[in-house]
Fold this sequence. Notes:
39% strand, two-stranded antiparallel sheet, nine-stranded mixed β-sheet, mainly beta, globular
Amino acid sequence: xEFWFRSPVPVKAKPASLAKCLxxxxxxTLIGVVQxxxxxxxxxxxxxxxxxxxxxxxxxPEDGNHLGTSEFSYFAVLIPTKLDCELDGIGTYKKxxxxxxxxxxxxxxxxxxxxxxxxxxxxxxxxxxxxxxxxSVRIKLPAKTADGSKTEIVFELVYEGxxxx
Length: 165
């Protein structure tokens, strides 16, 4: 996989702490693009198709169907770029999940888990193993609030590993 991240990422406000960085992002903000070079599996163990996909910030719904499936409720929702061509073209959770699942065999959005971090020490980006059988990349991105204040967000994107489904 190859990742390109947005700079700066728009956020609601400066994060209250490093561990709260993901809470500062609005759903479904565009945070980047990923090129998947071969078919892989996503966080649900569904197909992650080869190609170029936008990466949008998503939150796991609190609908009772997702209890215990993931340690954190933050996700990177992947959408084929041909279905997501406008920066602000997706404004709701419903549209986000519909676009992401439009071409999947499971009719579920393609997802990668996002994890908050407690430390931004060391050189970033860096590779980590945040849980057994999981691999992630820790990323620090410039961010900007609506009033123009500059800040940073730091998080991990799980590129290998699956939730409990």
